[in-house]
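Submission checklist for the structure archive. All mandatory fields must be present; incomplete records are returned to the submitter.

[x] Identifier: Binding-protein-dependent transport systems inner membrane component
[x] Organism: Rhodobacter ferrooxidans
[x] Residue count: 384
[x] Sequence attached
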Amino acid sequence: MGAYILRRLLLVIPTLIGIMMINFALTQFVPGGPVEQVLARLEGGGDVFQSIGGGGDAGAGLDTAGTDERYVGARGLPPEFIDELERQFGFARIVCEPGFTGKPSTKAPECRKEAIPMAERFGIMMGNYARFDFGESYFRSISVLDLVKEKMPVSISLGLWSTLIAYLISIPLGIAKAVRDGSRFDTWTSGAIIVGYAIPGFLFAILLLVVFAGGSYYQWFPLRGLTSENFDQLSLLGKATDYLWHIALPVLASTISSFATLTLLTKNSFLEEIRKQYVMTARAKGLSERRVLYGHVFRNAMLIVIASFPAVFISVFFGGSLIIETIFSLDGLGRLGFEAAVARDYPVVFGTLFVFGLLGLVVGILSDLMYVWIDPRIDFETRG
């Protein structure tokens, strides 16, 4: 098993580099880079999409002549300002002749602007990321790690509670449906979870706001935020109650659609195990139905469900529901990723992609270890 884990860990490096390389290359063809964003804001447009002129990434296609016609909104701005923006964003550098001792500037005849090739920019970025140096956000003047830490409580709350509630409800419900397969209980619960799965999360969130958050009927829950304004003045019990009060509706909205898959997976796993020979043998020995179900069937049937818990948690945790966060005015990783992509805030985009990609690959290894822990008969070391 040790050799298998070592091979998987070694595969993390090229896999992560491949993920970063593909996404980095794709951004070079996306219109409106960070330089365009700054120019659009200076022009009062507020958003680069209102003034895209057909160019690609601001770092692509830089010339050494210093022309600014490629930038929509650059008219009337001094070329030195554009040069400084390109240098700050890492798309260009100022190269001076040997022996030059002054401040590097394109105004000096001994210096010139030089575009940094895409491959070199990618190498510099990955070298920094290997040291876990993710730089600062282009537009927020805060390090990427600090920015992620700032948004983490919301994502932890939604991801952790949604996953736990889904498992705590779906597994017992799936077992009950398997035991009563074909009964009226099975039929009605199947209809209920299918309806829940069919309702879009954002639509259910709006319904919850309208009914329970002062929309038109009751005002039992707060409309926005993760905590109240006087949260710091509350007692420990008061803080816990206030937190749960705020998170109740967002968690319910983000969990409703996850019940169906997990419940039906649990039911089908149990049904498959119940029909096997070892269950019939256990019953023939006189074991009680409860002993057969939870002493023999449960461990085998729960292999797929429980072993996938790390991957499910990470996907919910880092997926971040943008719409749910927006509806309930929660500032989490979902909104952070969307805003960074729109603003072309590349340090945030690639920094979070690197961290979450690395965690996702490691969690994949943990899922395999969970399989072995639950069922020692599984041996990844000897599989072909």
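[x] Structure attached
Curator remark: The domain at 145-382 is CATH 1.10.3720.10 (MetI-like fold). Residues 47-68 have pLDDT under 50 and may be disordered.
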